[in-house]
Specification:
The complex is a heterodimer.
Chain A (H helix, E strand, L loop, with lengths): L8 H32 L3 H5 L13 H7 L2 H33 L6 H13 L4 H10 L6 H6 L5 H12 L3 H9 L4 H12 L1 H17 L2 H6 L8 H13 L2 H7 L6 H34 L4
Chain B lengths: L1 H17 L1 H23 L13 H4 L6 H8 L1 H20 L2 H12 L3 H12 L6 H12 L5 H8 L11 H29 L3 H9 L4 H26 L6 H7 L5 H4 L2 H11 L3 H30 L5
Helix pairs in contact in B: 4-16, 5-15, 6-10, 7-10, 8-13, 10-12, 12-16, 15-16
The chains are: A mainly alpha, B mainly alpha.
Chain lengths: 293, 309
């Protein structure tokens, strides 16, 4: 069957209309980012008089200078790095061995343990009991508490477990012949073979740690421990209602709007930097996840 | 009976001895789940007690369903519950179809580069924090400097205070959620479309079907199971809205449409320390959610033989 004249004229029109609609969707996805970027490098006067819509006006880095000279910004940035990478390391260190053990079919009690993990997908105690539990454990206002309290989740455990289950038996048998212990088996066979799944879960952890603010807001007291998102929240949300502060920020060089835009850009940049690798792995992650049970 | 018992116990002992390394590997995770997800369930008792932090959970007296009665007489809670259902229901109508349509559109895009590029862009907002999204929304909708109001005023309209007027809250919330998540959610449907057998399209082409007809007669029916599963998940989450995002966007002026059960729990429990009432509200929500998933799953298994479990 020849492939020319596959599409009628109606189909061509359909194709163009479709491409145009996707174009519109892509542009409206991009626009807010471009706008925030333009605001962050414009002068405060240009923004407050409503001159910035797409392109920056009176190009200046004044807003960035203001942000980068704020001591709390750097503290929050540093804290976020601790929470993100410390948290992800702890998550993987607990979930990988756990998911591996649950993937072994001869493990007695496996069914029960799997159910114990999966049940938490559908039901959890809720905000207040979780908070009171953290308090009882003495994990309020503690960096360690914020890291350990959110180390695992059922979705990631199931994803890893499914991947370990799919590793061909022959690898395991060959290693067992050489007298490998379970620890060696996990470390030398399963982890290297499951790199895509582990990287996927690691990236999920990194992204969710980097972006979360709610429990940091609830659990932390001191300013010295807050992550970047909470710092952002305090400036963008809590202060935008407070016009007095907003106007105190206002000079001709920067304004409340340009300063908040600069903070937003500064916190998006690391996400953009790892985005290509996220892209590569999350497609796999989602298709191999197939969370069931 | 007792000999069978000892035999059974011996079997466990042998398994434990044989697989002690595996149990050791699983131990930290099991302890974690018990300590951080199961131990808090003990705190659910508070919902049935007159809780005082000084007396602790065990020392506080039982009050039966008193807290639930108080809740159901509380106009603010009733309003929050209705708002939760309304926002979710509107999301189901307006936001749920968007990723399906997007996936179909991506699938019809012939240009491989254009397709990859546009997918890369529309997935991006999923990875941006709700704080940033709220910041962007606040910026774009600002009555004095926001783009939307600049456009409105250039057309001769009065500026609209989107974030302080209750009638605008739902549109802003659902609209920005579509912007953030629709692209990423289309991945699931794209994966389903990739699994549709190409021979179906080939034979349809031979019969002279147009692309439009192929979408309706082949692609959509083939991805229907995926759509149903996503719908079940969505219905199960009908009483869970993105409260972390709402907390950033709402203010007392918009509580009448924006306050949902989770934000009510947060305000009464964590900001107001009425732990018993807030726990009862949370439990009320969780039980409804659990029932919803079960019902949706059962109905779907009967109607279409597609189900989550």
């Amino acid at each position: 069957m020849a492939h020319f004249n596959l599409y009628s004229r109606g189909d061509w029109i359909f194709g163009y209309a479709n491409a145009a609609l996707i174009g519109i969707f892509v542009l409206s996805t991009l626009y807010p980012f471009i706008y925030i970027l333009a605001v962050s490098v414009s002068s405060g006067a240009a923004v407050t008089s409503g001159q910035v819509i797409l392109f920056p006006k009176d190009l200046t880095l004044a807003a960035y200078e203001f942000v980068l000279s704020d001591r709390l910004f750097w503290i929050a940035y540093g804290n976020t790095f601790i929470y993100t990478f410390g948290g992800t390391a702890v998550s993987l260190a607990i979930m990988i061995p756990g998911a591996y053990a649950l993937s072994r079919s001869r493990l007695r009690g496996r069914k029960f343990l799997n159910l114990m993990v999966a049940f938490t997908l559908w039901f959890n105690a809720g905000m207040i009991p979780f908070f009171l539990n953290m308090r009882d454990l003495g994990l309020l206002d503690s960096r360690f508490g914020l890291i350990i309290g959110f180390a695992c989740n059922a979705f990631n455990v199931i994803l890893l477990r499914n991947f370990f289950e799919a590793v061909p038996k022959s690898f395991e048998e060959a290693a067992k012949m050489d007298g490998a212990s379970e620890f060696q088996l996990l470390w030398k066979v399963f982890i290297p073979l499951s790199k895509p799944a582990i990287i996927t879960v690691g990236l999920f952890c990194i992204v969710s740690r980097w972006n979360s603010y709610f429990w940091a807001m609830v659990l932390l007291r001191g300013e010295e421990k807050i992550p970047l998102q909470l710092y952002l929240k305090r400036i963008i949300v809590d202060l935008s209602a407070n016009d007095e502060f907003a106007s105190s920020l206002m000079t001709s060089r920067y304004s409340f709007e340009t300063v908040t835009a600069a903070i937003m850009i500064a916190s998006i940049i690391p996400v953009l930097l790892i985005y290509p690798s996220i892209q590569k792995y999350f497609n796999k992650g989602i298709t191999l996840g197939g969370v069931k049970e | 009976m007792t000999s069978r018992m000892t035999h059974y116990l011996k079997g466990i002992g042998e398994d434990l001895r044989r697989d002690w390394q595996l149990y050791l590997l699983a131990l930290p995770m099991i302890v974690w789940f018990l300590l951080f997800l199961y131990k808090p369930m003990e705190g659910l008792q508070i919902a049935f007690k007159d809780f005082s932090p000084f007396r602790g959970i065990a020392g506080s007296p039982w009050v039966g369903l008193e807290n639930f009665r108080t809740l159901l007489e509380d106009q603010i809670f009733i309003r929050a519950f209705i708002n939760t259902i309304t926002i979710s229901g509107l999301g189901l109508i307006f936001a749920f179809p968007v990723p399906i349509i997007l996936a179909l559109m991506f699938n019809e895009l012939q240009n491989e580069f254009g397709r990859r590029f546009s997918q890369t862009i529309v997935y991006l907002p999923h990875f941006i924090s709700v704080v940033i999204v709220a910041g962007i929304v606040i910026n774009l909708l600002s009555p004095t400097t926001g783009v939307i109001n600049l456009i409105l005023s250039s057309l001769g309209f009065e500026p609209v205070y989107f974030l302080t007027q209750p009638e605008w809250f739902r549109s802003v919330f659902i609209g920005s959620n579509i912007w953030k998540e629709a692209g990423f959610e289309s991945i699931v449907y794209l994966a389903a479309i990739a699994g549709v057998s190409p021979t179906l399209y080939e034979s349809a082409r031979v019969d002279g079907a147009s692309r439009w007809q192929m979408i309706w007669r082949i692609t959509l029916p083939c991805i229907l199971p995926t759509i149903i599963i996503m719908l079940i998940i969505r219905i199960g989450n009908l009483v869970e809205v993105g409260f972390e995002y709402i907390i950033l966007l709402y203010q007392p002026a918009t509580y009448s449409t924006a306050d949902v059960v989770s934000t009510y729990v947060y305000r009464t429990g964590l900001q107001g320390t009425q732990y018993d009432l807030a726990t009862a509200a949370g439990l009320f929500n969780a039980v409804i959610a659990f029932a919803l998933v079960f019902t949706a799953n059962r109905i779907s298994r009967k109607v279409s033989s597609t189900s989550l479990w």
